[in-house]
Amino acid sequence: MSIPNHILEQLNSQADLVSIIGRHTTLKRAGSEFKGCCPFHGEKSPSFYVNPQKNIYHCFGCSVGGNAISFLRDYENLTFIEAVNELSKQTGIEVPKEEQQNVSYQRSKKTPTVKPAAAVTQAPNKPLNPEQVSADVPSGHMVLDYNDSNYKDSNYKDSNSYENPPPLDAYGYDSVPYMTDDEGSEYQADNNYPPAWLASGMAGLHDSDINHSFDNDNNNNDDNNEDGNLYELLEKIQQFYQHNLSTHPHAKHYFLSRGISDEIFDTFGLGYAPFGWQHLEHQFPQDIEGLKALGLVRRSESGRDYDLLRDRVIFPIRDNQGRTIGFGGRALDDEVKPKYINSSDSPVFHKQHVLYGYYESRQKRANDWLVVEGYMDVIALYQVGIYGAIASMGTAINESQISRLLTLNPTLTLSFDGDSAGQKAAWRTLEVALPVLSDDKEMRFLTLPNNHDPDTFIKSQGADAMREQIVNAMPLSQYIFAYLSERHDLSLVEGKAKLMSQVRALTTALPKGSSFRYLLNNDIYQKLGGKRSQNIEAKDALLDFDGEMTISQQLQLCFVFQPRALIDDPIEAIWQQAGIHELHLPAHLKQKASADVLRPLAWEDLQDEALLDVVSTIKRCLNYLPKDANAAAHFILSNVKPLTQETLSRDWGSFYKALTSRNILSLDGLVEELVSQLIERHMKKKTQDLIKNPDNIKLAIVRKQAQLLNNWLRAQQAEQSAQMATVKS
Fold this sequence. Notes:
Blueprint: H1 5-14, H2 17-22, E1 28-30, E2 33-36, E3 48-51, E4 56-59, E5 65-66, H3 68-74, H4 80-91, E6 104-105, H5 130-136, H6 154-158, H7 196-201, H8 207-218, E7 228-229, H9 230-247, H10 249-257, H11 262-268, E8 271-273, H12 279-283, H13 288-293, E9 297-299, E10 305-307, E11 312-318, E12 324-331, E13 340-342, E14 355-356, H14 358-363, E15 369-372, H15 375-383, E16 389-392, H16 399-408, E17 411-415, H17 420-433, E18 442-446, H18 454-461, H19 463-471, E19 474-475, H20 476-485, H21 493-507, H22 515-527, H23 531-546, H24 551-561, H25 570-577, H26 587-592, H27 595-598, H28 609-621, H29 629-637, H30 642-660, H31 668-692, H32 696-728
Parallel strand pairs: 15-16, 15-17, 17-18
Antiparallel strand pairs: 1-2, 2-3, 3-4, 4-5, 6-7, 8-11, 9-10, 11-12, 12-13, 14-16, 18-19
Helix pairs in contact: 1-4, 3-4, 15-18, 18-19, 21-22, 22-23, 23-30, 24-28, 24-30, 24-31, 31-32
Protein name: DNA primase
Subunit structure: Monomer. Interacts with DnaB.
Function: RNA polymerase that catalyzes the synthesis of short RNA molecules used as primers for DNA polymerase during DNA replication.
């Protein structure tokens, strides 16, 4: 099977080479490249480098090198076709199964050059007389009347355009100079082909390149029908559009009014497609087949050819090698719909695999990547020195593109408009990105204030303010919660449940083994008031604060931080929840048991003077405590015994800071857990004492109490595990 070179180039340039090679050796970032030990030969010192910008690899030890296809073929032992098919799956670039279409097309013979409708000296904003046109235009040349009610184009209508174009005065041409066909001869075909503007535009190329591009055109042999090349044709069209910008002041004024500098005109090759139905055919009469292959010339239902882009400023679209592969056209009048039109997919242009501004950003060695919505956003950021802004071609950015950008930099920022459409686009991009967000990758979201986009924000606030906005972009976890919070009523349990359900569904798309899945679920669960999550955070804070503290000391500080935990006595609550207060004993044991052994456990029984001091003081002062937690703590500390006060005061400040820094508002779960541990420890000690000093009645009762407590603790642990499993999923 013959596969065109341009397909192979696209596969190699779009492949995630770092990930492909990373499956076989550990790669670490080294500046703009990645390095590691060569997978082709054994070595201890890394000499194998991968360049993600050029998507090539090279080993300075064994001299092996190549691209994605060669690596799959040489290391993974795939055939050439298998390697191509594998990359096709990874990148989404389709490799046709049948005879491949390539970038060549058949050029037509030269025909006598005429200026269509040249004798019609009629202002462009007045309807043409069909009889006059037919009389003045030679056979074989067609001029379309834009007021022809019979003209309809299904393709153009499908792209949300207008069936019949509006009159020229709708564009304000009465107030701007616009050339008639006689005056606008710079885009008419003539005998001096290539035209002067195009020849001068090729001055920077080697002579051989120029000769190759124009040898057919400069040859006087009319039978010369050598194939044309779509890339070369696109380059000529780009220069044609760019030349038109200098001869149509109203078009250039559009860019100037948007703050575009002369340098940017050249960097991005900006241009203008003149008003007229067939200016490309007039300019490139031998390349009609190529123009149609590129989708720049289309055919209406009535069988008439017409140019796709008319009276629009032009944004050339380039591939990773800097070659022009398509065009975006913007209407000069905001009332014209659609505002933007992109050229069709073609053998060299596939919208879903191209990012506008990527080539220009790479030329500036961009490191930080920012996904924006429009061409002008890319250009505005580039002009003020913020490189790395890219935009998709009217379609959502896809997984392979996101993966590639995250390979270049592990942090990717998305900047979408704050309106409903912009936020929906941001959310769709988030969903697309989740499968490639491994734990070492990060996605951030930037919504500019006052409904600004990057272009308008820079004009209003300046470049430094824009840089600050990018630095402070919202992390993914915050964005998800903020986005979903606006769509669910969190004052209701049902609203919280729906939000948590959406979060769990989202996180299932994260890579297998992702720690971020658990952490994100847990973070949002905490924001919704999840008790277990607060308990984990509090335990982590205690460990960070002082991992050597005893359970009693931790519990004392918890009570000082949250004295309301003693409103309902925790020991009594656990005693009842475990069912110990309703202990069912055999009749002979109940008759012989003393009242002391059957009574509920009390704080005094734990034989911990400091803990008893804190509990007693708080219960005594509960009705007098200030509402502020820190003030209440100092009130409690001033009323405990001096020794207890000295111990607690030493740790209180750091403990309070450790909890508040984590935004911990509730210690209910932690208090319950700590009290349970103290009760369990007390029961074990009591059992051991009764074994040493036998009292069979008391021992049987204590063992029964301990069994009920253990059953309750296991049930609590199982419930907590189930909750966390739900959060993790």
